[in-house]
Amino acid sequence: MKRWLKYGIAAAVVVLGMTIGCADKTPLPTDLPEPIYGGIDTSYIVINPIWTEINGRALNRPNDVYIGYDQQIYICDTYNDRVLKLEIDGTFIEEYPVVHPVAISQDRGLDLLVVCGDYSRTEQVDGQDSVIWYGDSVFRKRYLGNEPFTRVFQAPYPYIIINDRPVHAEYWSVAAANSTLKNYYLTDFWVGRVLGFNAFDFPTEEFLSEGIGLGKTRFPLDLYTYQIAGQNYIALAQGAGNVGVQIFSLPNWVSPYVDGDTLPPMITFQARAYKDIAVDDLSNFYLLLDAPDPLLGAHYYFYKFDRRGETMLAFGAAGSGEKQFLSPQGICHFDGILYIADSGNNRIVRYQLTTEARQ
C-alpha cells in the first residue's frame, strides 16, 4: 500500500502581493553550455560506499535527502524519527530527533524546515493492523541556539471529503530559495494549490490554485527552487491529469511557456507515481518516480532533462542493484553528484558522471 506522506517544502524568493503572470513568458537562461545527448557525459556510475547505516543505526525508510545552504547533507531518516546532518564527504556530524520526517529544506537564515507525519492512526491493511502516518505539520529548527525542532504550522483542516468519505488533509512539499528573505512555499496535494509562508511561519497567499494547464496545479507533489544566471526559478512536479512539471520565474510566477506552445517532454511528462524533482547549476532537471508507470509511458524510476525540457537520460528498474530502486522518495544534486533516497531499500545512493568520476 502506497502511503502518501510527502510534504514538499521550498524556501523561496517571495515579493508579497504579487500575482501569477501567465500571459507573458520569462526567458530561459541562454548563457550556458550546450547539452550533450547520448554520450558518455550522460552516463552515471555509483559512488561507493552506498550509505545504509549512519551513526551506528541502519537507515529505515529515508524519505528525503537535501544539501543545505551551509553545504551540509541532511537526511530524513523517516522511520527512525530523526534528521541526520553530515559533512559533504559523508562524515557524521549530529542527529536531531523529530517525529516521522518526510521532507526537508533550509532557509537563508540556515534554519531547517521539515515536514513531519506527526499525526497517525491505526487501520486494517491486508487483514493486519498498520499505522498510517500523515504529513500535516511543518517543524522548524533554528540555526542559532540548541532548541529542538518545534512545530510552526499544522494543516488547519484535519479532513477533507474525497468520494463521500473523509480523507486526512495532507501538505506535501516545502522549499526554500536564493534570497535573504526567509519565506517558503508548501504544496497542498489534495486541494491543489501552492501556499506561501513568511519568515514568521504565517500563511501569506495562494500562489497557484487548482486547475488544469499552465499556471494552475492539480495534485502538486514537490517543489525545487534554484537560481540560474542571476534569475530565481521554481520547479513544480505534479501528479497525472495535468502537465507533469511546471517552471516559473520568481517572484512573479511567470512561466516560460504559454498556452499554444509546443511543450517539451518534461512538461508533458505523465505518471501517476509520486514525483520528486531537483535542478543542477546548468539547469538540467532530475525527476524521480517512486514507481514506473508503463501505461502512461513512464518505464523508469529516474529521468534527466536538459534546460529546454528535452530528455537526456532515463534509467532504473525495480530491485536493489546499483541502478535499481524500490520506492525511492527524495533526490538532490550538488557539485556534480546526484543523491537519491532509495527508501524501500533503506539507503542513500550517490551517482557521478563517468567523465567526473573520482578515483
Describe the structure in your own words.
The protein has 359 residues and is an all-beta fold. The protein has a single domain (8-356), classed as Neuraminidase (6 Propeller). It has 1 helix and 32 strands. The chain has one helix at residues 265-268; strands at 8-11, 44-51, 53-54, 57-58, 64-67, 73-77, 82-86, 92-97, 101-106, 112-116, 119-125, 128-134, 137-141, 150-154, 159-162, 165-168, 171-175, 184-188, 193-197, 203-208, 220-228, 231-238, 245-249, 275-279, 285-289, 302-305, 311-315, 317-318, 324-325, 330-334, 337-342, 347-353. Strands 1, 17, 18, 19 and 20 form a 5-stranded mixed β-sheet that branches. It has a 4-stranded antiparallel β-sheet with strand order 2-32-31-30, with no helix packed on it. Strands 5-6-7-8 form a 4-stranded antiparallel β-sheet, with no helix packed on it. The longest helix has 4 residues, at 265-268. It is globular and about 55 Å long. Residues 1-7 and 12-23 have low confidence and may be disordered.
